[in-house]
Amino acid sequence: MSVQTWTWLLVGITFALYFGIAIWARAGSTKEFYVAGGGVSPLANGMATAADWMSAASFISMAGIISFAGYDGSVYLMGWTGGYVLLALLLAPYLRKFGKFTVPDFIGDRYYSNTARTVAVICALIVSFTYVAGQMRGVGIVFSQFLQVDITVGVIIGMTVVLAFALLGGMKGITYTQVAQYCVLIFAFMVPAFFISLQMTGNIIPQIGMGGKVEGGAFLLDKLDSLHTELGFHEYTSGTKSTWDVFAITLALMAGTAGLPHVIVRFFTVPKVKDARKSAGYALFLIAILYTTAPAVAVFSRTNLIETVSNQRYDEIPVWFKNWENTGLIAWSDKNGDGKIQYVAGNALSSSKPEFTDARGEHGERIVANSSGEVNELYVDRDIMVLANPEIANLPNWVIGLVAAGGLAAALSTAAGLLLVISTSVSHDLIKKQLKPDISDKNELTAARISIFVAILIAGYFGINPPGFVAAVVALAFGLAAASFFPAIILGIFDKRMNKEGAIAGMIVGITLMMYYMMRFKLDMFGGGTSEDWWFGTSPEGFGTIAMCVNFVVSVVISRLSVAPPQEVQDMVESIRIPSGAGEAQDH
Predict the structure, then answer these.
(1) What 3 state SS string does 318-381 have?
(2) What is the CATH number of domain 3-304+391-576?
């Protein structure tokens, strides 16, 4: 069967499975809608958490970043993995004991203030919308290639699918859907990795194959270093980022993980604190399977790309290249007229945002509309590397279709979790807790579903017009979470003297600072700027660390200069540090 047929078949089967589960597990109460009734088993919750956590950024974009950035890309591995450990060990048990299943709910009660709750709701919406934009972009990329539709159409299809099972099942439906999605995405990620590792190094285990030898006796990483230096790039295994920026990005990703609302809520879907700890352990193991494989996939795809494309005549280029050209995510412009693709160091574009036309050059190549006079003739969007990898390696058509299904599973599972956070923030933390405390269970559920519908429309817009490739958008969401939530949660648990004035001021200052920096250097607003203008040499992806530190300082200073929290709040902070007890999730 053709790639197209396999893709339709596998995507159709997996989507039918997701819809079936969503209908079977549909929510009938707000507790089922928000926390799946609190009765999910630790293993199922661990799988759902892993699927929720491993978004399109993990499946599609992380290996793509590492394949181009090499050693510098390791910050994403360190930050996201370390962040999950930080969340599971430092925060989750205390938040679970506190008994509030949303971050704004925790902040509103801990800081005895509806103003703090409202600020937290706004921060949660900003973080979640930034994050979900990356997922919708991932969905659009997958659909655009494998279903042969425009990226905009792909995003709209993805919006419809997510909306359906989020509306039907709430957290209960999403949880069991994500168990299935984890199985699909991990299988889809690992199968091509096994194939390509065996093909290139003779070893079926990718993690070992990455350090193995290829045909000719050279080590694979030595060969890739050599290919890089021949083309004018820095060695793949050496870094170009400053030590400070590596530290800043890693810490921002770690702290951002610990403040992500859609991951924290997962610890309330199990019956007891003990089960929350178990599910955290399961999730970490399940996440590690993909995260330890991603660097190998990056090395395989980078090597294959260079060997199959660089210095090749266009009429000899493999079919996969011409197929992906139609999406506008890879392009070539024959600047020196020799009919060969010159892939060397240097930007193929005069702008970070490529602009393509439907015009073709004399060799049939797709023209890069705004290409500058630089030597490099090839533009490659990093987000295609995992998806195109099986085609580049000439793997069977069913594997290519499987990767499409896996990419969709990764993007859709996280998008669903984020949309639930958005709807919960509006219906529970804003409407029930503040605007209409006497709202009935049924009407609150209706408000949550309406919120999801509005949220998906906004998320779709950002998916069609994202501020960068998938992992970059997601990294910014982590920076926003680190700058706003992390200090408020940490100080709320471990500092009895922390009061509402300090928390509110810290969150506002932190997220405002991060948003300004992000809009200036990512969206070219407020005068724009280049990397030479970065404050303290810190990239936008790492600036969450600085904004977080400012938040901590502002919070602590203002809390010490203002009145202490009520005694009952200080006693409550003491009590949640006691490791015993289950603490049922409350919504009153």
Answers:
(1) CHHHHHHHCCCCEEECCCCCCCECCCCCCCCCCCCCCCEEEEECCCCCEEECCCCCCCCCEEEC
(2) 1.20.1730.10
